Amino acid sequence: MATVEELKLRVRELENELIKCKQRRSSEEQVHGRAKIEKMSAEVVDSNPYSRLMALKRMGIVDNYEKIRSFAVAVVGVGGVGSVTAEMLARCGIGKPHQAGLSKVEAAEHTLRNINPDVVFETHNYNITTMDNFTHLMDRISNGGLEEGKPVDLVLSCVDNFEARMAINTACNELGQVWMESGVSENAVSGHIQLIIPGETACFACAPPLVVAASIDEKTLKKDGVCAASLPTTMGVVAGILVQNVLKYLLGFGTVSYYLGYNAMQDFFPTMAMKANPQCDDKHCRRQQEEYKSKETEHPKQEAVEEEEEVVVHEENEWGIELVSEVTEAELQAASGPEPDLPEGITIAYTIPEKEETSGQTVEETDRSLEELMAQMRKM
Amino acid sequence: MATVEELKLRVRELENELIKCKQRRSSEEQVHGRAKIEKMSAEVVDSNPYSRLMALKRMGIVDNYEKIRSFAVAVVGVGGVGSVTAEMLARCGIGKPHQAGLSKVEAAEHTLRNINPDVVFETHNYNITTMDNFTHLMDRISNGGLEEGKPVDLVLSCVDNFEARMAINTACNELGQVWMESGVSENAVSGHIQLIIPGETACFACAPPLVVAASIDEKTLKKDGVCAASLPTTMGVVAGILVQNVLKYLLGFGTVSYYLGYNAMQDFFPTMAMKANPQCDDKHCRRQQEEYKSKETEHPKQEAVEEEEEVVVHEENEWGIELVSEVTEAELQAASGPEPDLPEGITIAYTIPEKEETSGQTVEETDRSLEELMAQMRKM
To answer: Among residues A201, B142, B224, B236, which one has the fewest Cβ atoms lying within 10 Å of its Cβ?
Structure first.
């Protein structure tokens, strides 16, 4: 086993090698790209890439656009939505985005650095659902702010599977970290974004994931999961509404959406808000709810989520998986659990059976095993 | 002092970073770009960039996705919306996009050719509002299809000024060419797309341009037009809904939107449809209306625009410019002309005075000259 001294030596060696590698890269990179810009200005000259963003101040939309540079955002997942999301954040001049994801992370950083060299990038190329990486993710959320040691301002989930969403949810509940979830359906024609404020709004474990009904003929629904469809258009719209929500949340303008869906077949965009579930399976979510309640009692907030349309999720229910991903109305009606009262166009990935039934019994009532259902959830 | 665990974590981090640094250097040295692909396939292999698009067939969304290669689309304007639009078309595998616009056209072509070498590009770097260039634009719309001599399948307007929109409108009315208009407000927080089928739906000259109400305090409205604001997020959403509408129109799936607005402040997406105006100033529009009427009498269409929500534009009115671009409700109420019956969230760029008044008198009634008003329209 390595001693502390040996490890320290190895750290020093690696640090040196890394500095040399970065120096070589920066000298190679100087061919393309613009020079860094110290301060965001509203001056209207060709050399100023920020004039059209800073114009938002003169238009009275944003009080203090240059504040965007003081924020750090972690983007988890760099697939269709994540890569466009990170690019939009870079173009908007965000202070620092983290990117955690698999192999595409480096290519993304290179492209984005060329687009906006003023942004600080931090990339991690790993699967966040393994224990070590999960611990590292928690550490970077807590300490990876613009100033090292401070938390990031927002975490964005742009992952494409259920386990990764649950990992982000668990981390953010434990840390009390505000995050936004995004998703695109397997058939690429619906998607959504959702703001999750631990203790205040429903977390990813509080309720079955909400999805946008695609209103597609039932028999055309995909049954075997070889390769999900993907459309650059749907990815662009979902990334666009996600980063717009990020700007509104960070810079404090307009109305931040709690949930915004996109049904591309009908061009329908349902919205809603949902409170946290006091019976949530996640103990950190329940703790955050308690903390939020005491804070609310001390300093009542004017624009709390309670004032938004409230969705009734039957609190006496246990959780069980019934139906997955894009569900048709017929499937939803056939489900045994009670249905939450959702606005038109939003449905749930599965319903919740009555308390009398155990989750096991409920799963037996369907023709699918829990494993099959979970496997299908992963495709969501 | 650092513990063994902390040091091990640091070693892992540094090793990871060093690998990434080296990977980046080697990837930067490589020349990118893939070889052309003769035939779109649904095969799920890393080397096939079309598997996720072709999956739309298996999902039952699109009957014949590979047909996308048989279409040619002209993109006029390569600013914020136009460049993202052209990129999305290239990523979707369109057969051929034309791009007409100013200096950015070549740079865009180079980037897009790298993204998808299977697409045929044709670029024209000019201002379409001069007579020579307008004639050339007409010729390329009529003959620039995938097969030279055949017309393009669709024209997309991604321009940022009134004259250029009017030029496209004039050309498309004369040629009976279906086109889609797009626009983003000066304050960057609202936008829209619109499908124009000459003779069937309202053309750009049939009615005052429809814009999305931004619900912004009146006094914060921009009065002098130095530099319009621009947001990559709004551009991405508008380009996304535009190209999604293009795919639905060309490939025949979902519901094609006649008008879809985007209010980013409230995340509100109003829709509507509007019939052509029999008193339209454009004689080619009136001729197309006559032709459409006779065709309708011979072969009644099931899904004509008449079945959509209909907007009453008072047909006995002359045209006069009253208010421009983003207008507040107070301004709209103060306008002298009758207001068309529009859905919530959609308003008009100006209202139409009563027939008794001449346009001249109406303009005199406002504090602005026609030139000033036209100058402001150009910023729209």
So the answer is: B224
- Please, where in chain B does CATH 3.40.50.720 lie? 51-298
Residue-level pLDDT at A133:
93
Mean pLDDT across chain B, nearest whole number?
A: 78
Q: Tell me how many residue pairs between chain A and chain B have CB atoms under 8 A apart.
A: 242
Cβ within 8 Å, pair A255-B234: no
Best CA proximity match to B187, nearest among B326, B75, B305: B326
> In chain A, what residues touch B4 (CB-CB under 8 Å)?
2-4, 7
With an 8 Å Cβ cutoff, are B229 and A55 in contact?
yes
Q: pLDDT per residue over B258-300, tens digit each?
A: 999 999 999 999 998 889 999 999 999 999 999 999 998 888 7
ipTM: 0.76
Strand-pair partners of A98: A74, A122
CB B90 within 8 A of CB B120: no
Distance from CA of A282 to the nearest CA of B (A): 28
How far apart are alpha carbons B380 and B378 in whole angstroms? 5
pLDDT at A113: 86
Closest partner residue to A255 (CB to CB) among B4, B16, B265 is: B265
Q: Which two tokens stand for residue A100?
A: 């955690």
Q: Any idea how long chain B is?
A: 380
Query: Residue B255 carries which side chain, given as an amino acid letter?
Result: T
CA angle B152, B54, B256 (to 5 degrees): 50
What is the per-residue pLDDT across A296-320, written as a single tens digit (0 to 9) for each?
888 876 554 444 444 444 433 333 2
Residue of A nearest to B7 (CA): A7
Q: Which residue of B has its CA nearest to A253?
A: B265
Measured CA to CA in angstroms, residue A324 lies from A255, A321, A346, A376 at distances of 30, 8, 14, 7
Q: Which segments within chain A are labelled E, that is strand?
A: 72-76, 96-101, 122-125, 154-157, 179-184, 190-196, 210-212, 259-263, 271-272, 346-348
Determine the Cα–Cα distance for residues A172 and B347; give it in Å rounded to an integer. 41
Interchain pair B233, A243: CB under 8 A? yes
Q: Is the pLDDT of residue B231 over 70?
A: yes
Of the candidates B203, B152, B213, B212, the residue with the CA atom closest to the CA atom of residue B183: B212
Name the minimum distance, in Å, from the CA of A281 to any CA of chain B: 31
Of the candidates B248, B203, B302, the residue with the CA atom closest to the CA atom of residue B68: B248
Residue B8 has pLDDT above 90, yes or no: no
Q: pLDDT per residue over B102-152, tens digit each?
A: 667 777 888 888 888 899 988 888 899 999 999 999 999 999 999 999 999
Residue B331, C-beta contacts closer than 8 angstroms, at least 6 positions apart: B218, B323
Residue indicated by tokens 């972690």: A74
Strand partners for B72: B96
Using alpha carbons only, how large is chain A's radius of gyration in Å? 22
Alpha carbon distance B242, B250 (integer Å): 12
Instruction: For domain A46-272, give the CATH number.
Output: 3.40.50.720
Kindly calculate the radius of gyration of chain B based on its CA atoms and give it in whole angstroms: 24
| Closest CA of chain B from A357, distance in Å | 34
Looking at residue A189, its pLDDT comes to 92
Beta bridge partners of A99: A75, A123
Q: State the DSSP string of B20-45.
A: HHHHHHHHHHS---PPP-SS------
Superfamily of domain B51-298: NAD(P)-binding Rossmann-like Domain (3.40.50.720)
Using alpha carbons, select from B109, B31, B21, B16 the residue that is nearest to residue A110. Answer: B21
Helix (H, G, I), strand (E, B) or coil at A48: coil
Residue entry with tokens 């988890």: A76
